[in-house]
């Protein structure tokens, strides 16, 4: 007797069915918001600013994620356009979500008068937190899993609890599969800790925490994507495919096998190639911004909205500090750790 999969519907209100997928994504968004508000408070940025950002950013991210996914799987939707809007059945791409969210953020930050890179740095750990929790929506939906594995690998090698092992049994395949959702969730958890440590370093400048988020996430995504069996793909040159497979080959040394990719569908996983390009672009941006002086501000420097300055010409950096008379962050010349940073866990 094989294990039964979890019901993707959490509860129903009349004819309305509430899916676990949506609830988990909502929990991820709220967790990320909590981390962002907590950090933003140290710079005197009101929590309403981030709450409005969430209200605008989540729909933008969902739209971007869905457009990205549908664009690469158009053959599945062109004859049944209504299914494009059924996001509760899964089928969203994280890179599309980031594109949608970043476009929204650029417009919103500009409207509010805040520098994009400074606020993006504050948001970086929150983005990873949202992704870490959101991946469990894939778990409930039994999607975004890896290639087949033996049950003993999940129980004895990974020592996973029964509820995860049972959910990794995919009935249509009559096989257990790699819990790639879990791999990515744990990678994101480590990334959150790493970013929180990095932001306490005096050498970190504007934009570098946000770019570090992209570097960390994309490295993990490159290797985890190679395990999946549902990757978006395209047909590219054999040389490029061989290069990507060669970079991924250390995973074989760890005992992992690449997930099956139908050669008629493509020979290059889109997310793997995009992950490589993002890592390269992020590293180059950090170098270029340092060399050109575009990253003069440090992470710990005060953040002041240009709209505030326009409304009050005598506004100084000291007035960028939080209310309740908390001390303002130090100047860019001395960079001692912020007082509240010392209390971070």
From TrEMBL:
Compartments, as annotated in UniProt: Cell membrane
Transmembrane segments: 20-37, 49-72, 92-109, 210-227, 270-288
Enzyme category, top tier: transferase
Pfam families in UniProt: LGT (PF01790)
Pathway(s) this gene product operates in, as recorded in its UniProt entry: Protein modification; lipoprotein biosynthesis (diacylglyceryl transfer)
Residues annotated to bind a 1,2-diacyl-sn-glycero-3-phospho-(1'-sn-glycerol): 135
GO-annotated cellular components: plasma membrane
Topology with respect to the bilayer: Multi-pass membrane protein
Main location: membrane
Entry's EC annotation: 2.5.1.145
Keyword field contains Transmembrane: yes
Residue ranges with Basic and acidic residues bias: 336-345
Keywords: Cell membrane, Lipoprotein, Membrane, Transferase, Transmembrane, Transmembrane helix
GO molecular function, one term: phosphatidylglycerol-prolipoprotein diacylglyceryl transferase activity
Function: Catalyzes the transfer of the diacylglyceryl group from phosphatidylglycerol to the sulfhydryl group of the N-terminal cysteine of a prolipoprotein, the first step in the formation of mature lipoproteins.
UniProt-listed HAMAP family: Lgt (MF_01147)
Protein name in the entry: Phosphatidylglycerol--prolipoprotein diacylglyceryl transferase
Native source species: Paenibacillus sabinae T27
Gene coding for it: lgt
